[in-house]
Every structure is written in structure tokens, then in C-alpha cells.
Amino acid sequence: MTDRIALIAGASGLVGSHCLAKLLKAPEYTRVITLGRRPLPHDDPKLEQRVVDYDQLGLAGVDFPHADDVFCCLGTTMKQAGSEAAFRQVDFTYVLSVASLSLGSGARQFLLVSSLGASPQSRIFYSRVKGETEAAVVALPFEGRQIFRPSILVGERREHRTGESFGVTVMRGAAFALVGPLRKYRPIAAATVAEAMVRVALRAPRGINVYESDEIERLGYIPGST
Question: What is the average pLDDT across 98-107?
Fold first, then answer.
């Protein structure tokens, strides 16, 4: 399918910003729509920026754009959110709102950035919410539901996350020992995740497809990259 339209929620984030850059370069996409709280410093003829209040999505009179492929890179941290309720609002409610509205607007596939260890049965609140979000998304009848579960993300963020930076340093040091089934725990570059998402979107596999971090690394591998 050519002349495709992509929509990205969370294009200002670590993975979302890489997705945006890759989609703008992809000839298969003639339009790329972003949903965000503020405009991004991009100027491209393919780009359409929608400044939105996620709390107002779906209200009467609020137009939701059509897209073929929806990339959902929304996410926060407990520290940023400030409470469990606020975290759930972003990582569950906003994600499900984007998914439901995009389905209603004719989207064919939904690509979600989740997290390694996501499970509705997890004792860890973060992982449990991620798992509940996955379950809610896969219950929607998109032609394709693509779930990406990356390990610790590596890349330049706007904000500094001390705990996460420490975790990346430790995991990088131990990466040589993470082989076989443990390989999925290795830190992964956000650019690799974005590359994998775009490649999967262009293939558009049907049904429910879950990609663990080691599979994402393989799918997003760019020859000559480090």
C-alpha cells in the first residue's frame, strides 16, 4: 500500500521523535500527523501537527484525523506523573483514547510502545499498567495490533533521569553476559525501536503481534550502526 498516512502520539518523546524522523523520510508515507500538547520544531511539507489536550479527545466537536498506521509512543514515569493515578491517566487512559478514536477514524493498524515485563498480573505497578494497556489495545479490532516491549531505552532525552541512567550503565556493563533467553534484557537504542516499528508498519502483519526486546533489536538493525 502506497500513499499511506501515519499518526504519531508522543512524537516529542525518545522513541516518538525517532519515529517521526523516520516516517518523514519514508516515501511510502505522504502525510505524517502528530498529536501533542505543543508544536514541535519541525518544518516538513508532509507534516501536519495537531496540538491537543488529551483530556479533551473524543469530546463532541473534536475532530480526530484519519490515518492508516497509528504509532503510539505515549508514556511517562512515576516521578514525572507524581502519583499512580496520574501515571495511569497517561499510560492507560490516553493510550486507549487514541486507540479507540483512531480505530473509529479508519486506522488499519496500531503500533504500541509498551515495556519489557508488561503483564496485567504483575506485582509491579508500572508493569501491571503496561500489561493492562496492552490487553485493552489488543481487544480492539484493528487489522493489525503490533506491541513492542523494549528493555531499558538508550538515547538522548530532554530530561535527565538519574535512576534510569544508572540502570543503563549497569546493564551495558553486564550486556556481554546477557545471551540466549537473557538477551532481551540488554539496553536498546530508541532509534532501533523506532526503525523496527516503521519496518513492521510497512509490512503490516495482521492480527496480534508481540515483539520482545531482542526481536525488536533484530528487526530494527541498521547495518553499520553501533
Answer: 96
- Do residues 189 and 155 lie in contact, with contact meaning Cβ atoms separated by under 8 Å? yes
Mean pLDDT of 101-122: 96
Q: pTM of the entire structure?
A: 0.88
Q: Reduced to 3 states, what is the DSSP secondary structure of residue 134?
A: helix
Evaluate whether 38 touches 51 at the Cβ level (below 8 Å): yes
- Distance separating alpha carbons of residues 171 and 57, to the nearest angstrom: 38
Measure the CA–CA gap between 106 and 7, rounded to whole angstroms.
12
Query: Does residue 224 lie in a domain region?
Result: no
Domain ranges, residue 139: 4-219
What are the backbone dihedrals phi and psi of residue 34, each rounded to the nearest 5 degrees, phi first?
Answer: -110, 145
Binning pLDDT at 50, 70 and 90, where does residue 223 land?
A: confident
User: At 205, phi and psi to the nearest 5?
Assistant: -65, 140
Q: For the residues 9-27, what does the mean pLDDT come to?
A: 96
pLDDT digit string, tens, across residues 48-77: 999 999 998 877 556 899 999 999 999 998
| Rounded Cα gap, residues 217 and 188, in angstroms | 7
Residue ranges of alpha helices (H) inside 59-124 are: 78-81, 84-88, 95-104
CATH of the domain at 146: 3.40.50.720
Residue 13 grid cell: 518523546
Report whether pLDDT(170) > 80: no
Count of CB atoms within 10 A of residue 39's CB?
11
Count structural domains, the chain: 1
